[in-house]
Design goal:
Helix content: 25-40%
Mean pLDDT: 80
Order of helices and strands: HEHEEHEHHEHEHH
GO molecular function: G protein activity; GTP binding; metal ion binding
Low-confidence stretches: 1-30
Shape: globular
Structural class: alpha/beta
Number of helices: 8
Catalytic activity: GTP + H2O = GDP + phosphate + H(+)
Bound molecules: guanosine-5'-triphosphate
Number of strands: 6
EC number: 3.6.5.2
Family: Belongs to the small GTPase superfamily. Rab family.
Organism: Amphiprion ocellaris
């Protein structure tokens, strides 16, 4: 299995801007409720949302992307990522197709200046640590500092504690991850690129948040990503062994 080492250019259909929202022209005889509530803006399915995986080397960024993209885990198959490469994925959310362009970055320090350059036009960042590695968890604060320095202030950030299947080697309790996420007001979940636990949920939650932001209607309640994640977790009962 080849690992993703590609240095492909950003795809030609990549757009950094959200669509312009044009209120649909309504009939002349506008009812009172229509007058009060402008029609909900539609989502532009041509939008491509740049989503970047970041975190220390070895936390499982490539494995997480391969699990999400191909639904499989190939143990120990990936040598450290060199540079940066992307995979395009389409996720169906609420009957619309959300295009994610997911970038897998190299966690090694020597590639840091390369990856910083990609933060600026990122719409979402998935920040990973390894639940069996205290240093990868301790470095999350430094990663968040870098993100705040180089990324746009409204970038969607999600913290993921990966390798949740390795509970016997756990170095970071789940509540420690939750506490850190609360401190930075970012959503959090534990994932396993090996078993696939929460992998789809992590990307779907990000896609939902991006969609809602793109069509945010002033009169509609804001999408609550935390509540969505909690509800999905309860529904699946996936995480009782954490
Ligand atoms: N048990 C277990 N092993 C994992 C998991 N995710 C990744 N691994 C293993 O951890 C090692 C590192 O995984 P990678 O996906 O290469 O990590 P990375 O973050 O992309 O590393 P860099 O490319 O160096 O930044 C590999 O041996 C994977 O098989 C997981 O969820 N569970």
């Amino acid at each position: 299995m080849e690992r993703m080492e590609s240095m492909e250019p950003i795809s030609t259909y990549y757009k950094t801007d959200y669509p312009e929202i044009h209120p649909e022209s309504g009939s002349r005889e506008t009812t009172e409720s229509q007058a009060k509530t402008p029609p909900a803006p539609t989502y532009d399915e041509e939008l491509v949302h740049k989503t970047i995986l970041v975190g220390d080397s070895g936390v499982g960024k490539t494995s997480l992307l391969v699990q999400f993209d191909q639904g499989k885990f190939i143990p120990g198959s990936f040598s450290a990522t060199v540079g940066i490469g992307f995979t395009n994925k389409v996720i169906a959310v609420d009957n619309v197709n959300i295009k994610l362009q997911i970038w897998d970055t190299a966690g090694q320090e020597r590639f840091r200046s390369v990856t910083h350059a990609y933060y600026r036009d990122a719409h979402a960042l998935l920040l990973l640590y390894d639940i069996t590695s205290k240093s990868s968890f301790d470095n999350i604060r430094a990663w968040l500092t870098e993100i705040h320095e180089y990324a746009e202030s409204d970038v969607v950030i999600m913290l993921l504690g990966n390798k949740a299947d390795m509970s016997s080697d756990r170095a970071i309790r789940r509540d420690e991850g939750e506490r850190l996420a609360r401190e930075y007001s970012v959503p959090f979940m534990e994932t396993s690129a090996k078993t696939g636990v929460n992998v789809d949920l992590a990307f779907t939650a990000v896609a939902k948040e991006l969609k809602h932001r793109a069509v945010q209607h002033p009169n509609q309640p804001k999408f609550q990503i935390h509540d969505y994640i909690e509800a999905q977790r309860e529904k699946s009962g996936c995480c009782s062994y954490f």
